[in-house]
Amino acid sequence: xxxxxxxxxxxxxxxxxxxxxxxxxxxxxxxxxxxxxxxxxxxxxxxxxxxxxxxxxxxxxxxxxxxxxxxxxxxxxxxxxxxxxxxxxxxxxxxxxxxxxxxxxxxxxxxxxxxxxxxxxxxxxxxxxxxxxxxxxxxxxxxxxxxx
Length: 148
Ligand SMILES: [Zn+2]
Prior knowledge:
Blueprint: E1 10-12, E2 21-23, H1 37-58, H2 62-75, H3 81-92, H4 96-109, H5 114-147
Antiparallel strand pairs: 1-2
Bound molecules: zinc ion.
């Protein structure tokens, strides 16, 4: 199930030669005293875009959802959630190839992601049944030709 994401709870100090692991929400780094406020809001962006994408997805606004989820995925490359949902959007629009690409990318970030695995399995079943359907059509054509 897709859930709203919580923002990051840790902020790594980005100031030169520091790298201290701080609690999110701190105004200044506990080691070097460098300002963290601006960076804190940067850390919030992927979750914010994901949540906007999720809202748009449930509201049926697939264009806005795709844009927000793509931004979230770009900003948080190790987070599978935006890619899983983006894949679902592609699948709903009938673009199974793009959907599969998204789910494979999600699995690169999280190899046992249950939803991504389930979606890929279902996509494979659809592709397999399409192949069978095409074979069936060819067989019917052959029979039709033979009848002539
Ligand atoms: Zn620092």
